[in-house]
Amino acid sequence: MPRLVRHSTGPGETVGLATLGDHGTEACFRVVSRPPSAPTPYVPGPHLTAARLRRVPDFQAPRGTRDLLPAERAAFRRLETVATDLARRYGYREIETPLFEQTAVFERGVGEVTDVVEKELFRLAPRNEESESWALRPEPTAGIVRAYIQHGMQTLPQPVKLTMTGPMFRYDRPQAGRYREFWQFDVEAIGDPGPAIDAELIELALRFYREVGLADVEVRLNSIGDAACRPAYVEELTAYYREHLDRLPPVERDRLERNVLRLLDSKDPAMVELNAGAPKITDRLCDACAEHFAGVRAHLEALGITYALDPGLVRGLDYYTRTAFEFFPRAGGGQQSALGGGGRYDGLVELLGGRPTPGIGFGVGLDRVVLALAAQGVSPPNDPGLVAVVVGADPAASAERLRVATDLRGAGLAVRADLGHRKLGRQLEAASKEGAHFAIILGDELADGQVQLKDLQAGTQRLVGIEDLERELSRATSSHRHG
Ligand code: AMP
To answer: Please, which of 9, 290, 346, 402 could form a disulfide with 358 given CB 3.0 to 4.6 Å?
Structure first.
């Protein structure tokens, strides 16, 4: 009996008509166009045609978020492993802060007149009895600095070097490489005024990209001054844009009076020429900032790191001072392709209520790195998978299979027991499909303490004493791993 399993919600969209298949899981469907606000046409029977699709589920992951299914999760896990190992090698220790904070941490830290706070903050509706306002973290630095102050880390030897990897949330318009939940590998060094550590951090990030397989990553560098020199520059820049008000698109006109620096990294094509003629902050740095910037560059050069100076790179958040940098794949890709970015935030600790303390950090966008690796044809890591599946000639004897598997797992081996009641042939088939190296077949020989060990990859089989199983499997897996 044909049944409509999904129809569109918006006027002018296409409408899917479907019949449930015999098993209720597959459906035939036909797509028809619907003029705006016309009633849903439903034409069952002979008109339903060829295309087959799975039944649309009632619930889906929220827009802009996605499930990381095992293959993609494995790709993320590999990046996390490289990240954690690398950060440890450079003396950074892991920290974990809550996924949400008091909204004021972001409003004060990131800045109220920034896209991240104004438009993209996921604010949590407070429960009645709570008076605090909370928001999901859009970036990690403000929360880490809040923790630094709260736990009196100023009294530790400085700098305090911290790293964190986890999800961030921004209520952004979803598109390729831009999600509402995305993952960052973050590194922060709090309590060192630089400039040497600025170069060390940039080198760390570049090494991360290299070690995961992205060789050709470019670093773009700028200095955005500090409280001594930036105000005069901001005034000069405002005056420059005011002179050209008629050439500013409406969005930029609005930004002009609120956060003029953002005009410099505008993506609007109408701004390209105007921005090229804009005064450059690097020509107007105070002596201390100029000296610092020269120091960063000298240290990068000492490490043999090439970089591109980018006077339009201002970063989106208010807390940055002096050094600002971003990472891009050299093979193009535009603004959306930034693989990471960071900078110095010498005023942030004080802004959040601590003693004046310099700091610098960066965040690498892991989702973008996974996409860039896929675009370069770098294949995801091999899942080490199962060493063996314990199967049996007597489908009912699941307790024996479970016991053997449990002993082997206790010895650290990845072993599944076939706990269903299907025939041996089907159990073996499933073990092969899963990519297990061995099947351990329990049969009559078990009475003599023996099992059949079937090498599913080589297609060979032999009798093995049950007490020798662990040694046999361990030997085979280590030679498999290193071979
Ligand atoms: P930001 O501090 O905004 O420059 O973010 C640091 C890095 O996180 C960026 O360079 C991107 O790689 C990544 N990133 C930022 N926003 C998103 C997003 N909405 N979706 C995916 N990745 C993002």
So the answer is: 346
